[in-house]
Amino acid sequence: MIQSMTGYGKSVLQLPTKKVTIEIKSLNSKNLDLNTRIPSYYKGKELAMRKKLASALVRGKVDFSIYVEMTADETSTTINKGVVSNYMNQLREVAVIDGSKDAELLAMAVKMPDALKTEREELNEDEWNEIEKHIDIALKEIIQYRTDEAASLEEDFKQRIVNIQSCLEEVKGMDGERIKNVKERIAKALDELKVEIDENRFEQELIYYLEKLDINEEKVRLANHLDYFLQELASNVSNGKKLGFIVQEIGREINTTGSKANYAPLQKVVIQMKDELEKIKEQILNVL
After folding, report:
1. 134, 147, 191, 273: which one has the fewest Cβ atoms less than 10 Å from its Cβ?
2. Are the beta carbons of 156 and 2 closer than 8 angstroms?
């Protein structure tokens, strides 16, 4: 079962004094590109958290965020009374001339440096254990999202591979007619030249020329690559890079068949195969 690299997971934890929202988003990328946004007091857990995310998500451009919203009446920010009082006294001395009121002075004082002080919140292990459980919930959600997203991709891949296999059968069916057509064109060209030819030498040259146009190996290899792609698609491990390599090999055989075709009806079928393969290539980049 393949997985997509596109996904989203979210979990919300309500603690006594705060609401913690955990979000994980991912898009396709060649490797793991992990970006985290977490409050400073959780930084001590970041390395372990990154390892957990890397192990679960493997690859993709991943954005991980922990948002904290304080919900309690208490606040960690308090007024530094001594500093504000000192500012007020100084401002009164300056403001005697214009008769400013204390309320106005207070509004000015609290904007001064060090007027407010914030107590640094320390990491609470019990709190983090709860958060970690919700990280796991968000991870399960994004993995399920990736799996669901990949289900439609898998069906599309299968249908396009079947279409290419169908085109390959057409190629096999018209290959004999193609060779016959090539022989007739060469013979007609020689007749128009009205020159005598050595029949034995002509046959040797014709055999050599037809060998250059032979696509039997390409047909066999293409059929094998198509079967191999379907086998990997059905495996228990999602390996987008491996599927991408197989797609490259499929493209190589299709291109070689087209370059050797020398027969318009066959070249039309090759174009159909290329069209189906291009659509696979576009989507395979999103497979984990």
Report:
1. 191
2. no
